[in-house]
Amino acid sequence: MKIAVHGASGFTGGLVVAELARRGVEAVLVGRSRERLRAVADAEVRVATLDDPDALAAAFAGCAAVVNTAGPFTRWGGPVLRAALAARVHYVDTSGEQGQIHDVLATAGPDAERAGVTVVPALADDGGPGDLIAALTAARVAPAREILVADLRLPGGASRGTARSMASIVGRGPLEYADGGWRPDTGGHAPVDLPGERVEVAPFPLPGVATVPRHVPAARVRAAMRADVVKLFASFDPGAAELAPAVLDEATRRAGRWCMLARATGSGATATGVVTGPDPYGLTAVIAVEGALRLARGDARPGALTPAQAFEPAGFLDALVPHGVAWRVE
Question: What is the architecture of the domain spanning 2-124+283-322?
Answer without folding.
Answer: 3-Layer(aba) Sandwich (3.40)
